[in-house]
Amino acid sequence: MSVLRRAPAAAVATAACVVLAACGEEFVTGTNEEPAGPALTAPGTALELGEAATVPIGRNGVARLVVTRIEEGRPADLEAFGQDARAAVSYVWMTVTRVSGDVGGFASYDHVHGWAGDDLVPHVLTDPRPYDPCPTRYFPDDGPVGVLETCTVFTSATPIDRVGFHDAGDYRRNAAEVVWR
Description:
Layout: H1 2-23, E1 46-47, E2 52-57, E3 61-73, E4 88-100, H2 108-111, E5 112-116, E6 119-121, E7 123-124, E8 147-156, E9 162-165, E10 178-180
Parallel strand pairs: 1-10
Antiparallel strand pairs: 2-3, 3-4, 4-8, 5-6, 5-9, 7-8, 9-10
């Protein structure tokens, strides 16, 4: 009698296996392919200050870049550096977070620039001397990296109105860069 009681349960289990096998790939939950890297922010994206962009850095690095604020500085602040400051000095504050790969050696002046209308605004390099109003920091070339808070100085005839990220690849300057306003 115990054999007869098990027969209906075995028939149901067998039927379930046949139905699942007929469905095939719909129940596959994994593949042999490696997962794709993090999704990059599309070239040409316009963002508000404080919004994050995921961008390529270096040969194989990916970072999350957030331009947090743009502050107005004073031309007199740059006299100690012998800089010929123009009428407007802008401090661009940003946070850079390593997402994947090697982002060592990241320097904002390599990838971030300012715009005042149609004019590209030059960086003012304050390194290696410390500059308290706007300290420039870099990811180290080696060792563990995580989050970097840094500031970049720009000087122009008028204050900058936007900040762009560019590289030598898809994020070309003034064509397909990611921009914060």
